[in-house]
Design brief:
The structure holds two protein chains of two kinds. By secondary structure, chain A is mainly alpha-helical. Helices cover 74% and strands 0% of the residues of chain A. Chain A has helices at residues 5-10, 32-37, 39-71, 76-90, 94-104, 114-139, 143-151, 156-186, 198-209, 212-244. The N and C termini of chain B lie far apart (50 Å). Chains A and B meet through helix 4, helix 5, helix 9 and helix 10 of A and helix 2, helix 3, helix 6, helix 7 and helix 8 of B.
């Protein structure tokens, strides 16, 4: 699948080249009509992106708590296993993890639908990052609080639940929201296994309309708006919570 | 096992392309990022605003969409870019934005008193930056830059989606001919892991050194 000079020469207007590009010359102006006609499709794609992200974020945040607590455990085996999980997931590309879940798990008899595979891969990947975010938050709470809790007769879980975690939550919020935004952007990769989210919507639209410029310009803008809204919400939430403490 | 042995040379060959693309984009991004980072430390407001807008856009849009814009949308202006060049352009612009933030942050983290002291000693604005700020900022920026390099290595995998036969697409191609998904994905992830983990170890070491020096 190399697009050498030969392949490019073959691509005239309306004829996609080997990579699926649709050359239509350079005489076209920005065609807003193509965008307005396809608003429902953009919205569908956006909805799918939001759906995947929401499911993956919830799973990743929950799994992240488990991994972080294991990582902080005093049992060597548990914290070692958690460290392995974190390092492997953080040091390999999400795309390969996605392919592993989608193409390899069926051979273990675990056949997930494309949507489930996408959500699982996104969650597993980002859980590793969330775990590190939580760990940093927990470790930023002074060690003495731990000792004070112990002196007052709290058990480990009690110290965590009643003393450390309530304080850590506030510190974890800004990097946590940052991670959420990264996850939303990473959801664009799920199109690679055929889930028609926002990015794949664009990929499909340009094969039928050849309006590559307009379509990806619009999609870029939608992501930008989404990310901006999320970070604005994050700032609001941060201010709210910092008042409480 | 047999499959791994026969696939390894092909995957390693693709790894060379992955490394080549990573090094190229990291170098280009570093040059771009350093330039922009320094500019945002000294330039007038209008230029700083332009740099901020660039960083905002790059950070707000998924890399894949940026790649598609370069690959599918540049032909709109009559610029037919082959996959490798598209990936190189998109990744360099991406890396440049993050590198500029790192450089800007590092310059900002050098204590304000240093600038005042340099001024009192009669240094020019450029002299202050060159002799006082940058040597100190350098050790702040090194660890995050190394971890950015690991991010770049991982990010090259999405070039597979515009049919560039780097490691990820090579693995996918092997799997069209053989049925050994665990071995092949395991092997390609191992290669990525070796590349990225060694960078992350280097980053941690540099971080420790920076902390000691501080």
């Amino acid at each position: 699948m190399n697009t050498g000079p030969g392949a490019e020469a073959a691509s005239g207007p309306g004829v996609p080249d080997a990579a699926g590009r649709n050359g239509r010359g350079m005489s076209y102006r920005f065609d807003v009509g193509i965008l307005t006609r396809n608003i429902p499709r953009f919205l569908e794609g956006l909805l799918m992106t939001l759906e995947i992200s929401a499911m993956a974020v919830l799973l990743a945040m929950a799994l992240g708590v488990v991994v972080a607590l294991l990582r902080l455990s005093h049992r060597r085996v548990l914290s070692g296993m958690a460290a392995c999980y974190i390092e492997i997931l953080r040091n390999t590309p999400l795309l390969t993890q996605l392919y592993l879940v989608f193409f390899a798990l069926p051979f273990l008899g675990l056949s997930l639908s494309p949507l489930a595979s996408g959500v699982v891969a996104l969650s597993l990947h980002h859980a590793a990052y969330f775990a590190e975010v939580y760990r940093a938050g927990i470790e930023s709470i002074s060690r003495r609080q731990h000792e004070a809790g112990k002196a007052l007769g709290f058990k480990w879980w009690g110290i965590m639940r009643l003393i450390i975690l309530p304080q850590a939550v506030v510190r974890v919020l800004p990097p946590g929201i940052n991670q959420l935004i990264l996850l939303v952007k990473d959801s664009s990769l799920i199109g690679a296994i055929g889930i028609v989210e926002l990015t794949l919507t664009g990929r499909i639209l340009i094969t039928s309309t050849a309006a590559s410029y307009e379509v990806f310009f619009a999609i870029g803008l939608i992501y930008l708006a989404l990310v901006t809204v999320l970070s604005a919400l994050a700032k609001l939430l941060e201010r709210r919570l910092s008042y409480e403490f | 096992m047999h499959i791994i042995l026969t696939a390894t040379p092909y995957l390693l060959q693709a790894t060379v392309l992955t490394i080549y693309l990573s090094v190229l984009c990291f170098a280009a991004g570093l040059v771009l990022g350093t330039g922009l980072g320094l500019l945002s430390a000294v330039a007038p407001k209008a230029i700083r605003a332009a740099i901020m807008a660039y960083v905002f856009v790059i950070r707000g849009v998924p890399l894949l969409v940026q790649l598609f814009i370069v690959f599918f949308a540049l032909p709109f202006w009559g610029l037919e870019v082959p996959p490798f060049t598209s990936a190189a352009i998109a990744l360099s612009l991406y890396t440049g934005a993050f590198a500029s933030e790192i450089v800007r942050g590092a310059i900002g983290s050098v204590a304000r008193g240093q600038t005042d002291a340099a001024k009192a000693l009669g240094y020019t604005r450029f002299g202050t930056l060159r002799y006082i700020i940058l040597p100190q900022a350098f050790r702040y920026m090194l660890p995050p830059l190394v971890s950015l390099a690991a991010t770049v290595v991982k990010a090259t995998s999405i070039a597979s989606l515009i049919s560039l036969t780097e490691l990820t697409l090579a693995a996918k191609e092997v799997l069209q001919r053989t049925v050994a998904p665990f071995q092949i994905w395991g092997l390609s992830m191992l290669i990525y892991f070796i590349l990225c983990y060694s960078l992350s170890i280097l980053g941690k070491r540099l971080e420790r050194q920076a902390a000691v020096l501080h």
